[in-house]
Amino acid sequence: MTDLDEIEVVHHDMTRMFTILGKGSRNHLYLDETNVFTLGHAQAHGIDLVEGYFKQYYDLLVRLKTGIIFVDIPPDISWERRQHRYVQRHWDLKDEERQQILERHKTYLERLYPALLAIYDRLDFPKVKIDGMLRPEDTFRAAKQMFCHLQDEV
């Protein structure tokens, strides 16, 4: 990802939020997989957008009466769960080239994790952290319960 790619993602997020806020109704439910955590992904790519965009994200998320559900998965577990997908994605490469790319993906996850945690820690509205090391069906069940709980809080 380039700086421009990352900024484009940030602006796309904010455009969606402004669109919802512009509708005037508070009866909207806004779900987004990454949103402010996009900044952590950019940082893991070596592009620091956190200080430039965190306050803008934060202010919009407060206006949207946001609650955050963060599935906490350490990089080694994340890698273990994703590695087969990356191998499939690069099936046509020579073994050495595939290994280099796989190592880059793994290193990216290791850089990403602390960046995501740092953003989570800065957020000061209803939030919950779910243990992502649970079995996927248990993680989903916990997320569903927390979603209902956060809906009552926000």
Give a structural overview:
With 154 residues, this protein is mainly alpha-helical. Helix content is 66%, strand content 6%. The chain has a two-stranded parallel sheet with strand order 1-2. Helix 1 (3-22) runs parallel beside helix 3. The chain is globular.
Q: Briefly, what is this?
A:
The protein is mainly alpha-helical.
Describe the global form.
globular
Order of helices and strands: HHHEHHEH
Low-confidence stretches: none
What is the rounded Rg? 17 Å
Strand order of the largest sheet: 1-2
- Mean pLDDT score, rounded? 89
Overall strand count: 2
**What is the percentage of strand-forming residues?**
5-15%
Q: Helicity, in percent?
A: 55-70%
Number of H- or I-type helical stretches: 6
Integer tally of domains = 2
Structural class: mainly alpha
Please write out the topology.
Layout: H1 3-22, H2 38-44, H3 50-63, E1 68-72, H4 75-89, H5 95-122, E2 127-131, H6 136-153
Primary descriptors:
single chain, 66% helix, mainly alpha, two-stranded parallel ribbon, 154 residues, 6 helices
